Amino acid sequence: MKLNLPILDALEDSENILIAGCGGGFDVFCGLPVYFTLREMGKNVHLANYSFSPVGIVAHYCNTVTLESTLLEGATADIPDELQLGYYPEGYLSRWFKDVDGNPTTVWMFAKVGPAMLLKLYQQLIDHLKIDAIVLFDGGIDSLMIGDEMGAGTLLEDTISLTAVQSLDVPVKLLGCLGFGAELEVAHNNALDNMAALAKEGAFLGSCALTQQMPVYEKYESASKYVWEQPDHHKSQINMRVVSAVNGHSGNYHMYDDYMPRPVFVSPLMSLYWFYDATAVIKRSLLADVIRPTRTIEDAFAATIHFRKQMMDKAREHRPLPY
């Protein structure tokens, strides 16, 4: 069974495609089934992530490919055995590619910076890899939040990536969201309103589901578990819920009982991809222009806090869904 991607027409003429996690953490893993699908089609596909890893530290101790020292590094499978890194998903994903998939792969890491600096780093990577299409991936849907919502989740990191990519001269720029309902802090009534607004604009490009029968899903699950089960390594709340949903679990289900077992509600909705025109998404953002000039994550965060305080009196309410 193949993944029925609705974005294949948009990528038909693209030769060098960048799959990039836009919200940090394990977001790049959400793009793996699409990466494998495009790779099987003969496309040149690359992986990158807006990284929460300590990029400078891992570059010092591990073998990386440097484009901009401590800011844009390519994680490789070469991790010293004596190191037990509690947070290095890009490096261990690269090692999965080498040891399990048999295809050594560099996973590029953008340091956690503001959009002005991230734009320059993206441009370096695009020039280096000759990228002609970017597909950003978000674990969850807070990348669709525009900034006036109660329960906007961790929208800052996603907005930083979308803002940087908006300014790039790349023909195709898409956004994929996976794991609707997996973010416990998000007001999903507001998310659905935003999704409806994007559909009205013609910016919604379609949806599709992951199933157990798909080889590309099996690889995604294998890679995810490989990284999560490294000694003392962090796990991904979003991707664990996606995997649980695809495997037929629902309700308050936890893959790893000893890992932050707060109540959750796993549902089949978490197995769905939602694809959008990334430019249309960021044009709706009220936060983008506020943070656009910032170069550091600290300045972007400070600008966001100030903006959110100004929005409190007119923020859209967090309401339960009427189901």
Overall shape: it is: globular
Q: How confident overall, as mean pLDDT? A: 95
Kindly name the structural category: alpha/beta
Percent of residues in β-strands = 15-25%
Name the poorly predicted regions: none
Arrangement of strands in the largest sheet: 3-4-5-2-1-6-7-9-8
What is the percent of helical residues?
A: 25-40%
In the residues, how many domains can be counted? 1
Largest sheet: 9 strands, mixed
Total count of strands? 9
Give the terminus-to-terminus CA distance. 32 Å
Radius of gyration: 18 Å
Task: Determine the number of helices (DSSP H or I, runs of at least 4 residues).
Answer: 12
Secondary-structure element order, N to C: EHHEHEEHEHEHEHEHHEHHH
List the helices and strands and how they pair.
Blueprint: E1 16-21, H1 27-30, H2 32-40, E2 44-50, H3 55-61, E3 64-68, E4 72-75, H4 89-101, E5 107-110, H5 115-129, E6 133-139, H6 155-166, E7 172-178, H7 188-200, E8 204-209, H8 215-228, H9 237-246, E9 272-277, H10 278-283, H11 288-291, H12 297-311
Parallel strand pairs: 1-2, 1-6, 2-5, 6-7
Antiparallel strand pairs: 3-4, 4-5, 7-9, 8-9
Helix pairs in contact: 2-8, 4-8, 5-6
